[in-house]
């Protein structure tokens, strides 16, 4: 794989599902997994097999069905977790065991109640056990964003020596800032002597709204796998949003010359499917997939877009699977967009009729907000009747 290829690891079915209220049944997980396969993500994290019999069944169904992506299952650094994960994953085309343990002083002291050396020992044992099942083993340092760099380098070196092939550095609580996290990733890779034996990965949460920015900073710092979810679904404020990370990499090739294998025209369909299945609405102004992401209302913008869309669109709607952008007729709209829409609807008005209709349109827009095609039909009929 080339050194500028970024692996996209989708965790909608695992971290995304941990979003309160976003539980999915087996059939729903499978439908989403099949869409993720069409989207051409590299890895689908399908769930946490030991969490419940339902989760086990969901991961197994995904692993047994999906052939074009690696399928991963999450487990703590415990034998029973790892064995259960393997039971669920073993029918997969390229199964990955993903084991994690916390590495920050806060988590080690208050949650694990373990000494740092015990944490290293547990992590190494978990990786070795996973490795006895598959060569494809990912290890994550939970709360790496608040871990001490020296300890992080020591444990990462040990788990790579034990056989981990992907090292994931999560900002579990969305605490770091991009100009801190990118150099942190670079420093870690530099300080781990056997770092060339593994792919470094990033997994960011959005508590400060920085998950996408931190993920991109980590790529600039040397990460070559990004963990993300459709619509940014995930614990608390969510995870880095797949569509944002992928489209940022694609749109800013000039300063981030990295490639993914994502079929971006499947993004909108993936977003709508996840929203429909989970019942989580996508906010209208959400980047890339919000209803307004390719909509224009103001006269100046509409005029620019009608002349050439690149004036106000940094990517095409077609590139994310939409058939067109959307001109919203409202009080901010200008004559150019108004006339254009009337022509699309088949109305030919002379200059005076157009002027009167435009005036009536503005008055209506003030009262109503968005003026729809049906409203325009009434406006034009009214104008013709008066004549
Ligand atoms: O946020 C996190 O640290 C995680 C790990 C389990 C990868 O989700
Ligand atoms: Zn997470």
TrEMBL record:
Subunit record text: Homodimer.
Domain Pyruvate carboxyltransferase: 6-268
Catalyzed reaction equations: 3-methyl-2-oxobutanoate + acetyl-CoA + H2O = (2S)-2-isopropylmalate + CoA + H(+)
Annotated Mn(2+) binding sites: 15, 203, 205, 239
Primary role: Catalyzes the condensation of the acetyl group of acetyl-CoA with 3-methyl-2-oxobutanoate (2-ketoisovalerate) to form 3-carboxy-3-hydroxy-4-methylpentanoate (2-isopropylmalate).
EC number annotated for this UniProt entry: 2.3.3.13
Domain of life: Bacteria
One CC-aspect GO term: cytosol
A Gene Ontology BP annotation from the UniProt entry: L-leucine biosynthetic process
Keyword annotations: Amino-acid biosynthesis, Branched-chain amino acid biosynthesis, Cytoplasm, Leucine biosynthesis, Manganese, Metal-binding, Transferase
This protein's name: 2-isopropylmalate synthase
Similarity comment: family membership: Belongs to the alpha-IPM synthase/homocitrate synthase family. LeuA type 1 subfamily.
Pathway noted in the entry: Amino-acid biosynthesis; L-leucine biosynthesis; L-leucine from 3-methyl-2-oxobutanoate: step 1/4
Broad enzyme group: transferase
Keyword Amino-acid biosynthesis: yes
Keyword Amino-acid biosynthesis included in the entry's annotation: yes
Cofactor or coenzyme needed: Mn(2+)
GO molecular function: 2-isopropylmalate synthase activity; acetyl-CoA C-acetyltransferase activity; manganese ion binding
């Amino acid at each position: 794989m080339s050194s500028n290829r970024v692996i996209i690891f989708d965790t909608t079915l695992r971290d995304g599902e941990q979003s309160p209220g976003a539980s999915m049944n087996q059939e729903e997980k499978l439908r989403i997994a099949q869409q993720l396969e069409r989207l051409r993500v590299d890895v689908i994290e399908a769930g946490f097999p030991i969490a419940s019999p339902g989760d086990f069944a969901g991961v197994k169904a995904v692993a047994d069905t999906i052939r074009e992506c690696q399928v991963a299952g999450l487990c703590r650094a415990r034998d029973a977790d790892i064995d259960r994960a393997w039971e669920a994953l073993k029918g997969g085309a390229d199964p990955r065991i993903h084991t994690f343990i916390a590495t920050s002083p806060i988590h080690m002291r208050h949650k694990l109640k373990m000494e740092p050396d015990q944490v290293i020992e547990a992590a190494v044992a978990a990786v070795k056990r996973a490795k006895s099942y598959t060569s494809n083993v990912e290890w994550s340092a939970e709360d790496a964003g608040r871990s001490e760099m020296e300890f992080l380098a020591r444990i990462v070196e040990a788990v790579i020596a034990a056989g981990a092939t992907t090292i994931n550095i999560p900002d579990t609580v969305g605490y770091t800032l991009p100009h801190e996290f990118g150099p942190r990733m670079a420093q870690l890779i530099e300080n781990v002597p056997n770092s060339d034996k593994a792919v470094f990965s990033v997994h960011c949460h959005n508590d400060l709204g920085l998950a996408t920015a931190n993920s991109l900073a980590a790529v600039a710092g040397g990460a070559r796998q990004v963990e993300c979810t459709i619509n940014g679904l995930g614990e608390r404020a969510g995870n880095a949003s797949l569509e944002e990370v992928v489209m940022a990499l694609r749109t800013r090739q000039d300063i981030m010359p990295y490639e993914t294998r994502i079929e971006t025209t499947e993004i909108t369909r993936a977003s709508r499917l996840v929203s429909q299945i989970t019942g989580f609405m996508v906010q209208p102004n959400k980047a890339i997939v919000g209803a307004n992401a390719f909509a224009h209302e103001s006269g100046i913008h509409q005029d620019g877009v009608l002349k050439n869309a690149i004036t106000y669109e940094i990517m095409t709607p077609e590139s994310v699977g939409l058939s067109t952008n959307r001109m919203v007729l409202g009080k901010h709209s200008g004559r150019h967009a108004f006339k254009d829409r009337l022509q699309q609807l088949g109305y030919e008005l002379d200059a005076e009729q157009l002027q009167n209709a435009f005036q009536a349109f503005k008055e209506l827009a003030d009262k109503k907000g968005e003026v729809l095609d049906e409203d325009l039909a009434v406006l034009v009929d009214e104008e013709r009747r008066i004549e």
